[in-house]
């Protein structure tokens, strides 16, 4: 009896050892294709969607000093169907969890984004922290195709660009979950960065600059890089970047580097009308003075700061006006602020917020503080 | 075989892990959006009187568990009938919790592994620990609690940079109605589920204070759950939280410390498993204990394996899919659980008080 139980337990352990150790659905990395980025276009011929995928090539990557890539493209009716059918082109399953960017063509964006991004946020193979772009070129896959010129993995380059975007602030940084968050919340419209192809001296590069403006999930318009910067000011999303300042005669002379910025938006009732009061405080450093006039007369630091504040004030106001008049898109989240600060008012305004936003009174007050003048205490002096 | 007694610290650990068990996965139920944390606090306050009733039962019947109480108060037949109900409840609850874990692993962690595989592994582990006895369970709970608290605390700290305070505003957006509805639901799931612990009251020292163990457990667990739901709200916002099956998992996946510490949600999920392990084990123990009491077995150990396997199998076919699971957990369970958590214990308590009065009067009479 005792030996029997010993034999049985040994057998049982052997079975457990084989069946419990290791992984159930084990797959090697070289049996997978690592996806770096995705471009989604409209396929006009068949009136469906076209998915282009940039993949990291693992086989050659070991020998060469730079990573290599592969591209494939396929059309179909639903995104997931295409994603799976790609196996019939590559022979390997695609590994989506390392993808960094998703680029949508303008056409797709104008027709509504929900149908193309739902799979990406729902599926468990993908991660929701990929960067979202709208291609201003005709086709989104052209941007990915730039890799044959630049010899780099474009998707990872774009991701890096987004990480460094805080130094320029000419495009919003948007990840997919963030975008969906904006779609779901009322009183806030979504935005996404725009991507262009930039050609100079025969060398093509990708160029991220500007904003695509959405109403619900449809793209309705664009902002250029400068307008984006001022829109980000109104959204309190500025972390860095450069402000140009004119001298007293009106020529751009000074550059201020933004060190930190804070924006406060307050809704207020003024004479029976709702008014948004925006107050920005920006700490900057003077980093460039293209003149030899010294900081005297009309060009004292104080005067420069005041002039910068005034022009910032006007620029922010004009981009808000543009949103109100042209696109009727509350990308600044004013609705949400009203919701948070005045819940009772919001209940009344909620259903007609788009119209309400268009007629909203906005007051902007910008304050610029120049903290430093970098290494030099004065402008370059001209000797005689 | 002597009676197993475990110290108060260990039973408190069991209570804490038991209560946070499935809420760590599922989050608290929510129609109340960004005010769900208020609902949690109210629910915690509402649970306190119930818990005092449970604890009072221990004073009235020192050294007895739920089944002894039911049989001695309601008689051999009716008492056994009620005991059978509790056996079902604990078996079912254990299966539900296992299924939560199964769905979790199927949905986010091990997507191509059949759900039964991880559930069976955990189930076998629970069978093992229950077979080893409550002392082992108590000691492991105490150790696992420290580990769980440490992980939760670290994760909480790491998510601070992702907090967006404006998600909590405006306070009470949808008014008090949904908050109270949620509070009601949250009392039954997870707080008052601790009624299961009545079935293991024999492990408390006879003179020990059940009230202290239960209250401390519920308060600590409530604080943890509130902390976690506030974190989920702050990180994800009420709109996203309501669309997710496992909000905590997604909230943790947002953590990104300097592009270096990322994708830690898989490691954070380990605390779900530890808490769930305690919860399923306690359910299994209590249901086996019930069978032993109803059928007058010498020891509950002879049915642990069978009940455990039944529990695993039940959890496999109890729902068709995850949508059903969510519907049951948030809409049906709060009504289904009421008799087990409120009506039967209250009746038991009331009759026990009457009986105690009578017997003390009798004792007085005999003294005179």
TrEMBL record, chain A:
<keyword id="KW-0449">Lipoprotein</keyword>
<dbReference type="Pfam" id="PF25198">
    <property type="entry name" value="Spore_GerAC_N"/>
</dbReference>
<feature type="signal peptide">
    <location>
        <begin position="1"/>
        <end position="26"/>
    </location>
</feature>
<dbReference type="InterPro" id="IPR038501">
    <property type="entry name" value="Spore_GerAC_C_sf"/>
</dbReference>
<keyword id="KW-0564">Palmitate</keyword>
<comment type="similarity">
    <text>Belongs to the GerABKC lipoprotein family.</text>
</comment>
<dbReference type="InterPro" id="IPR046953">
    <property type="entry name" value="Spore_GerAC-like_C"/>
</dbReference>
<protein>
    <submittedName>
        <fullName>Spore germination protein B3</fullName>
    </submittedName>
</protein>
<keyword id="KW-0309">Germination</keyword>
<keyword id="KW-0732">Signal</keyword>
<feature type="domain" description="Spore germination protein N-terminal">
    <location>
        <begin position="26"/>
        <end position="195"/>
    </location>
</feature>
<dbReference type="InterPro" id="IPR008844">
    <property type="entry name" value="Spore_GerAC-like"/>
</dbReference>
<keyword id="KW-0472">Membrane</keyword>
<dbReference type="InterPro" id="IPR057336">
    <property type="entry name" value="GerAC_N"/>
</dbReference>
<feature type="domain" description="Spore germination GerAC-like C-terminal">
    <location>
        <begin position="209"/>
        <end position="373"/>
    </location>
</feature>
<dbReference type="Pfam" id="PF05504">
    <property type="entry name" value="Spore_GerAC"/>
</dbReference>
UniProtKB/TrEMBL annotation, chain B:
<keyword id="KW-0309">Germination</keyword>
<keyword id="KW-0812">Transmembrane</keyword>
<keyword id="KW-0472">Membrane</keyword>
<protein>
    <submittedName>
        <fullName>Spore germination protein YndE</fullName>
    </submittedName>
</protein>
<feature type="transmembrane region" description="Helical">
    <location>
        <begin position="213"/>
        <end position="234"/>
    </location>
</feature>
<comment type="similarity">
    <text>Belongs to the amino acid-polyamine-organocation (APC) superfamily. Spore germination protein (SGP) (TC 2.A.3.9) family.</text>
</comment>
<feature type="transmembrane region" description="Helical">
    <location>
        <begin position="69"/>
        <end position="89"/>
    </location>
</feature>
<feature type="transmembrane region" description="Helical">
    <location>
        <begin position="268"/>
        <end position="288"/>
    </location>
</feature>
<feature type="transmembrane region" description="Helical">
    <location>
        <begin position="36"/>
        <end position="57"/>
    </location>
</feature>
<feature type="transmembrane region" description="Helical">
    <location>
        <begin position="12"/>
        <end position="30"/>
    </location>
</feature>
<feature type="transmembrane region" description="Helical">
    <location>
        <begin position="180"/>
        <end position="201"/>
    </location>
</feature>
<dbReference type="InterPro" id="IPR004761">
    <property type="entry name" value="Spore_GerAB"/>
</dbReference>
<keyword id="KW-0813">Transport</keyword>
<feature type="transmembrane region" description="Helical">
    <location>
        <begin position="143"/>
        <end position="160"/>
    </location>
</feature>
<feature type="transmembrane region" description="Helical">
    <location>
        <begin position="109"/>
        <end position="131"/>
    </location>
</feature>
<keyword id="KW-1133">Transmembrane helix</keyword>
<feature type="transmembrane region" description="Helical">
    <location>
        <begin position="332"/>
        <end position="352"/>
    </location>
</feature>
<feature type="transmembrane region" description="Helical">
    <location>
        <begin position="300"/>
        <end position="320"/>
    </location>
</feature>
<dbReference type="Pfam" id="PF03845">
    <property type="entry name" value="Spore_permease"/>
</dbReference>
